[in-house]
Amino acid sequence: METTVTLTKHRVGTVEDFPVEGGACVRVDGRQIAVFHFTSRQEWYACENACPHSGSMLLARGLIGDQKGEPKVTCPMHKKSFSLQSGQCLNDDEYSVRTYPVIVENGNVYIELA
User: Does 2 map to a domain?
Assistant: First the structure.
């Protein structure tokens, strides 16, 4: 039996609310979510803000970049790097973060949550 998941679109701000080539934390339905704007790539990503290694709410302040073309964020505390496409930890298979779809429409930024 196939399970269908319905996603709800939540407005989290405008494009101008987020730093160029950086991240910011938003709260949606009681969850802290890190939203990243890769301006040079014209791409947006979102993941849970908590680092699974420590539980600290700090991924929005992490360093963003890419590893072999894959966008990533690196936890500023423990240096664990997470793919912003899959959520997998790129330097430790034990950890992962949940990722969320981001939509930008008419200058507004939305995150889709189940």
Answer: no
Confidence (pTM): 0.92
Query: Is 36 in contact with 84 (CB distance < 8 Å)?
Result: yes
Is the dihedral angle over the CA atoms 37, 41, 45, 51 positive or is it negative?
Answer: negative
For residue 10, tell me if it sits in a domain.
no
- Here the CATH number for the domain that contains residue 82 is 2.102.10.10
Residues of 58-83 as b/e, b for ≥16 C-beta within 10 angstroms? bbbbbebeeeeeebbbbbeeeebbbb
pLDDT tens profile 10-42: 999 999 999 999 999 999 999 999 999 999 999
Boundaries of domain holding 101: 18-113
